[in-house]
Amino acid sequence: VSTPSRPSLTRRTVLRQAVVGGAVLAVPAQAAPLEVPRWTSEPGGPFQSYGQPSQWEASVSRSVALPYADIAPGIGTANTPLERLEGTITPNGLHFIRAHAGIPQVDPALHRLVIHGMVRQPLSFDAATLLNYPMVTRTCFIECAGNSYQHSLSQPRQMELGDVHGLFSTAQWTGVPLSVLLDEAGIDPRSNWLLVEGADAVALSRSLPVWKAVQDSFVALYQNGERLRPEQGYPMRLIVPGWQGNLHIKWLRRIKATDTPTHTRDETSRYSLLMPDGKAQEFPFAIPVKSLITRPSYGQVVPGPGQYWISGLAWSGGAPITRVEVSSDGGITWRVAQLDDVPKEYSPVRFRVSWAWNGNPATLMSRAVDASGAIQPSHKEWKKTFHPTNRFHCNAIQSWSVDSDGTIENVFV
Ligand SMILES: Nc1nc2c(c(=O)[nH]1)N[C@H]1C(S)=C(S)[C@@H](COP(=O)(O)O)O[C@H]1N2
Ligand SMILES: [Mo]
After folding, report:
1. DSSP for 294-348?
2. Mean pLDDT per segment of 10 residues, for the chain of length 413 residues?
3. Which of 23, 139, 160, 172 is nearest to 81 (CA)?
4. Of 125, 154, 160, 167, most Cβ neighbours within 10 A?
5. Which of 199, 172, 41, 12 is nearest to 105 (CA)?
6. Which ligand 1 atom sits nearest the alpha carbon of residue 202?
7. What is the rounded CA–CA span in Å between residue 26 and residue 385?
């Protein structure tokens, strides 16, 4: 087992030691008498009113992609660096961002949420009113339907995990169940759909079935215990547990009860699935079963033969995860991974498997199964299911090939 001071390591490798180091089942160093460091021999610094991560963790940040650059600096994505995080919760400052018309600064004193359409009594709520309503707290992931875009192509891209799959984050959300608000407005039993709309410049809007709204959707006001971040929809957003990210309307301003779906732009021109016959399947709501090995992954270096822990995330919008399997030989043999926690609906689970690497080239893959029996497909199977140009809901297995020098490549198996 190698130590971090291994002389053959490149600078990049050394920078990555902080990441990969955690994956090494390292033999502890021989204890020498402890020195008294500066931080022990003098008092520490003052307090910050809003805390920040350690200065040594400053490189753990979102990567921002702006397809229109300066023309529209608020349109694009900021990806969560999944390869540098552990557990399942995404810190608020690292939650991924997808915004179609920038991040509005919405004044909670002026913002209103209106419920209208097929209701007995149209109602208007401000955030202060909603804060006085009964609330629920749920840990839910949000995944953009367009996550893993680069993974849906026919050639693998050599990019860090978060740059390919980082339109995925998880938070503990707290807010008011839609069932409470719809009850109060008196929704007409003949209304089967809701048009839900945001207050940003694109007024992003989608159709949501009433059954899902009533079952477990809610208007979130808090994200990991603090009020929502502006980029996550402050002062209020919709959480539709397990369903595609686009439905989680941010800066929520309008809920209209309707008898039919509205067929808005964002459910016709996109966020549908292009099938092999060229027809688009509308309303593919639930996020399909998926898993990713976050460590080791592209950009990290396995320092040498030895014993490692493979770590990753698994989730499904359809049903709780029941099993995650890991292969280190390109899918010939699979081992059942251990799970950090009891898998819950709509929340990802962290999986681990120990791996004895003999230094020969190896291909690492993970495959998740959920309680509905859905199994994560291989890349070939996924490609066959859809039209070659479909880019949405890509849950194909991610494979990392480890070369004998410990470098990692993204490969399609
Ligand atoms: N009003 C509004 N809501 C929105 C969006 C938007 O651009 N405007 N983006 C949607 C998309 S495509 C996704 S994937 C999620 C992303 O949520 P996040 O930015 O909090 O991660 O918000 C959805 N809600
Ligand atoms: Mo999205």
Report:
1. EES-TT-B--SSEEEEEEEEEE-SSS-EEEEEEESBTTSS-EEPEESS---TTS-
2. 34 39 55 93 96 95 92 92 98 97 97 98 98 98 97 96 98 98 98 98 97 98 98 98 98 98 93 95 96 96 93 98 98 98 97 97 98 98 97 98 97 96
3. 160
4. 167
5. 199
6. 8
7. 43
User: How many whole angstroms separate alpha carbon 315 and alpha carbon 295?
Assistant: 17
CB 282 within 8 A of CB 393: no
Q: Please count the other Cβ atoms lying within 10 Å of the Cβ belonging to residue 7.
A: 4
CA of 270 to the centre of ligand 2 (A): 10
Token pair 């499904």 in the structure block, residue: 316
**Statement: the pTM of the whole predicted model exceeds 0.70:** yes
Q: Which two tokens stand for residue 107?
A: 């004044």
Tokens 């010939």 belong to residue = 332
- CA 43 / ligand 1 centre spacing (Å): 45
H helix and E strand count, the chain: 8, 24
316 Cβ contact partners less than 8 Å away, ≥ 6 residues apart: 242, 287, 288, 289, 290, 368, 370, 372, 374
Count other Cβ atoms within 10 Å, centred on residue 122.
13
DSSP secondary structure letter of residue 380: H
Specify the DSSP element, H or E, that contains 211.
helix 210-216
Hey, which of 246, 254, 267, 391 would you mutate to test ligand 1's pocket, going by the most ligand atoms within 8 Å of its Cβ? 246
* Total Cβ atoms within 10 A of residue 136: 15
Q: Is 98 in the pocket of ligand 1 (CB under 6 A)?
A: yes
Smallest CA-to-CA distance from 236 within 178, 195, 169 is with: 178
For 181, counting Cβ atoms within 10 Å of its Cβ (0-12 exposed, 13-18 middle, 19+ buried), the class is: buried
Tokens of 53: 């991560």
What contacts 313, CB < 8 A, 6 or more positions away?
A: 82, 88, 168, 291, 292, 294, 348, 349, 350, 351
